[in-house]
Amino acid sequence: MEDVPDYETSSESESEEAITKRRKKVDKQWEMEKVFENKASAVAAVQMEQVWSFTYKNVDTEGNVSEIFRCNKVKKRAEQCAAGVYLHYPSTTSEVHLYRSQLAHTCNVIVTRVKSKISNEVKEEIKSLFNFDSKIKPKKVLDILIKKQIALPSKTQLNNYLSSLRKVKYGSNVMSLGELENFCLENAKVPDDVDAAFVVSYQVGYEEQPFFRFFVSTKNLLKLSCDAHHIHADATYKLVWQGFPVLLLGTTDRDRIFHIFGLAVCSKEQTEKFVFLFKAIKSADQDIFQKSICPKYLVCDSAKSIQNAFINVFGSDVTIIMC
After folding, report:
1. How many domains does the chain have?
2. 259: part of which helix (H) or strand (E)?
3. Pair (121, 232) in one structural domain
4. How much of the chain is in helix, strand and coil states, percent to nearest 5?
5. 69 vs 86: CA distance, rounded Å
6. Please, where are the H alpha helices in 148-263?
7. Domain stops at, among 120, 135, 170
8. Which of 152, 170, 188 is the endpoint of a domain?
9. How many angstroms separate the most distant Cα atoms in the chain?
10. Residue 19: inside a domain, yes or no?
11. Which contiguous run of DSSP H or E holds residue 199?
12. Are residues 184 and 310 in the same domain?
């Protein structure tokens, strides 16, 4: 079975956006530069440089206050300059200490973002990074470009360009029903390698209400189901494919460790998708290992679709354990 490229999931996209809100803390390498007699003279000195804007205030448990200033050559909500200063007000004296970051200004690099198209020079640099690591994240690309003092594209431009590079390398991450059926057909043969993944069973419909269902596993994973007396089944909405939840099927051992039999993705009809899944595992055990799976217990949530499907395939002489 061919390797399927790792496409960016919704959770990964959300985490990328979260980076802009919760930036990784950078060691500013603060050093005390000057001591002022009072707050007025300290604030006046900072304002005189005409490059700093107040950002936030910290107060520690001993009453010491720190006022942090950022470089105002970049927007407050955008990527921040590495340089900075802060004023420290010790609780035991009226003196004010000025601390300055030993990092050089990076605002000149940040403000030279490409406003229209990404230049060929920047594209070649990004492409080189992508060819070295096709899973590289936009945040890491920006960090490398900053270090090389290369004009930065906007995050939208960068994400779009990385997406185009992935599409060229892996093909479109949106699959049609016809492409899905061809993929399943090409990978339906049971391999000799017991750890090689293959499509155990699939169904594709093109009529008025198109649908698809497919179940993927390996011979080693399927073998675990042959002697299983209890089965766990559930749909996970944290792991999705093309927007559809992935269905998981497996069992647990005496140490309560979960062992997966395989995974499936189905569209439409809750009960029917689990009927398909249970029938797929039952037929696979019979065809590949000449064994009949006879589970007596189903462990699942309160979803009637799973319970009804299990009874439909394995009979009513079962015990359902809800978790």
Report:
1. 3
2. strand 258-266
3. no
4. 35, 25, 40
5. 6
6. 155-170, 177-186, 219-225
7. 170
8. 170
9. 88
10. no
11. strand 198-205
12. yes
The conformation of residue 79, written as its DSSP 8-state character, comes to P
Least confidently predicted of 8-17, 140-149, 243-252, 311-320: 8-17
Tell me, yes or no, whether 166 and 102 share the same domain.
no
Quick one: 126 exposed, middle or buried, by C-beta within 10 A (0-12, 13-18, 19+)?
A: buried
Name the nearest CA neighbour of 277 among 178, 184, 196, 201.
201
DSSP class of residue 53?
A: E
Are 103 and 116 in the same domain? no
If one counts every other C-beta atom within 10 angstroms of the C-beta of residue 22, the result is 8
pLDDT value of residue 10: 39
Q: Quick one: tokens of 277? A: 């899944």
Same structural domain for residues 166 and 276?
no
Per residue in 145-171, pLDDT (tens digit) is: 988 888 888 888 898 899 889 888 877
For residue 52, pLDDT over 60 is answered with yes
Closest CA to 22 of 33, 30, 14: 14
* Structural domain range at position 126: 112-170
User: Do 177 and 212 meet the contact criterion of CB atoms below 8 Å apart?
Assistant: yes
| Residue 22, both tokens | 């919760």
Cα within 13 Å of Cα(301), Cβ side: 6
Q: Are residue 133 and residue 147 in the same domain, yes or no?
A: yes
Q: Are residues 203 and 311 in the same domain?
A: yes
Any idea which residue has 């998708």 for tokens?
A: 273
How far is Cα 301 from Cα 275, in angstroms, rounded to an integer? Answer: 16
Distance, first Cα to last Cα, the chain: 35
Q: How confident is the model at residue 271 (pLDDT cuts 50, 70, 90)?
A: confident
